[in-house]
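Notebook p. 47: complex prediction with magnesium ion.
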Amino acid sequence: MTTLREYLESAGCEAALQDLIMLIGRQAAPIREAFITHQAYVDTENVFGEQQAAMDTWADAWITRVLGESGLIRELASEEQEEVSVFPDSTHEYAVVMDPMDGSSLIQTNLSVGTIIGIFGGGTVMQSGRNLKAALYMLYGPMTTLTLSVGQGVQVFAMDKDGEYRLLHQDMKIPEGKNYGTGGTRPTWVAPHRAFIEAIEEEGAKIRYTGSFVADFHQILTYGGIYCYPALNEKPKGKLRLLYEAIPVGFIAEQAGGRTSDGHQSLLDIVPEEPHQRTPIYVGSPGMIRKVEAAFEGTG
Ligand code: AHM
Ligand code: MG
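Predicted complex, C-alpha cells below:
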C-alpha cells in the first residue's frame, strides 16, 4: 500500500516540501494523545473573543514550536495567534497558514475535529489560494486521516497502527450530491442565502451539519453537496477565516473537481488584506455553487 512519503515522491514534490508535509502528519499522534489530557475548558478567550478550549492553545503552541524548529518555514499564521510568526533562521521559504484545532467546541462531545494547513512558497502567508503549493487537513475521527492536495488532485491517507499514513482514497472527486450544512441561523441569514437554502430544501437536499468545518466538509467531499457559512445580517463577512479555513479547504475542494465561492467569486481568487479576515464560505459540488452564485447575482 502506498505510503504518504511514496506518494509525495511520485508526485515530484521537492524534498523540503515532502519533509514539511511528513512532519505535519506526524503531529497527529501527539495531538490525539493530548485530547485525553486537555479536556476541560480554560477561562481564556482567543483573539476573536470566543471561548477557547485548552486543546486549541495546546495544539497551536505544539505545531508552532515543531514547525518553527524545523528550519523549513519562514512564516506561520494561525487562527489562534494575533501576530504572524517569522522564523528568520529558516533555510526554506515555505509559509504556513493553519487552524490548529478546527471545530474545537466539539471535543467535549467526542465528535470529529481536525487540523487545517495551507502551505505557500515565497516566504509570506499573505497570498491568495491560487498560490498554494499544498493544502491538507488531518481529521481526528474513528480513524486519523490526512486529506492532501499538492495541486495534483486529492488523496486521502489513513494512519495505521504504526503511525504510517497509507493511501485510502485516490483522486477523490466530489459527487454532485444532495447533502448540505449551513452555519448561522435562519433569522440571521442574508436574503440570498435564505433563498438558496429554501430552494435546495424544496429539491430534497438533506441536512448534515455537526459544527466542525473539516468534518462537515469531508462528508461533502465523500458524498457531495455543499458546506456553507454565509454572510449574516449583522456579520457580512460571516464567521470563518479566509487564510486558515477557506483557502486550504477550498483548494482541496477545487482539486477534487468541486467549486468554492463567497457568493460571487472563488475563494481562491480573494487576495487577503489582513491575516485574520473572514469571508462567507461556500464549498461543494459545481451544481450547488452555480445555484449559490445565481442566488447572489446582482447583490453586493
Ligand atoms: P473554530 O475554528 O473556532 O472551531 O470555529 C470554526 C467552526 C467551524 O469548524 C464550524 O463549521 C463553525 O465554526 C460552526 O459555527 P456555528 O456553531 O456558528 O455553526
Ligand atoms: Mg476553525
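Notes: The longest strand covers residues 94-102. The chain has a mean pLDDT of 94.
Next step: compare against the earlier run before touching the bench.
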